[in-house]
């Protein structure tokens, strides 16, 4: 879909925002609903062991399903922390971030409200039990600072997977010139869903596993007064601040490890990746590349900000060159003053002006 006019951009943002809204609604309804289901099967008594498994599997599976359904529309962030880390790293515009933030919070609240309406009591018997449970609970032996760190680490694991699928895979190539992203696209939601499940399995016994400010707020807003009077309610801020810290830290980790924070964002001083023109002993200088490609009858190879080491001529093997004109890196970003919408799972190449 081309974003040439203001009208088309507005329509694109609306569709992406609605996708985020509905996907987050499903995430909260089924994810938190699985926790309410445990409460129903234990006669209103919480079972933290069962909660952890139900919580992890439900949130992980819904994330995978949503990923396949809307990755090509919005990127399937369904988490303000994911959207925040992508806007901080220049992968989405500020306009799209605020559209997603509103959609995610609204979707989570609607999902929690529908769930509360379904399981919040009012059965045929006189002694009905409110089976609604947001699933958030700061363990009595966990301090707020510890809970904050747990929430941050759980969110960081999810964003770590997002950066691999949405950013790193778009830069790493094999010798044929195909990016790893070409392979990852087909199964992209799966590693992110696994990361969500693993984070919930870890954090649930300690904090109830928010790791998503929209999920936490959308579910907790329907809790009764007793929740807000408890330790969890008093220290609810850990479910907001923890994921925000992870969103700020994640791009730095990505930069330290890989030297880039956007797909195709390779500069001359960045580290060497799996280049189709480099042998096992090292890369080639630009002059050596041109010299050897010319000897093979290849003219004007398209080199996009490729970095080259200085040990080329001695280490270069001409028989490693392909027989056709190479393209070293695929560049999703078409203009220096624009960014491409990053789909977590499917990289889209339509430019989006910064606003």
Explain the overall architecture.
The protein has 355 residues and is mainly α. It has 2 domains: 7-122 and 132-265, Glycerol uptake facilitator protein; 267-328, no CATH class. It contains 13 helices and 2 strands. Strands 1-2 form a two-stranded antiparallel sheet. The longest helix is centred in the N-terminal third of the chain and has 36 residues, at 6-41. The relative contact order is 0.15.
- Class per helix and strand makeup: mainly alpha
Based on CA inertia axes, which overall geometry fits?
Answer: globular
Level-2 CATH architecture of the largest domain = Up-down Bundle
Summed over residues and divided by their number, the pLDDT gives a mean of 75
Task: Look up the CATH topology of the largest domain.
Answer: Glycerol uptake facilitator protein
Measured as a percent range, the helix fraction is: 40-55%
N-to-C SSE series?
HHHHHHHHHHHHHEE
CATH class label of the largest domain = Mainly Alpha
Outline the biggest β-sheet: 2 strands, antiparallel
Distance between the termini: 19 Å
Radius of gyration, in Å, reads 24 Å
Number of distinct helices: 13
Share of residues in strands = under 5%
Give the low-confidence spans. 1-6, 266-355
Overall number of structural domains:
2
Major sheet: order of its strands?
A: 1-2
In CATH, the homologous superfamily of the largest domain goes by the name Glycerol uptake facilitator protein
Number of strands: 2
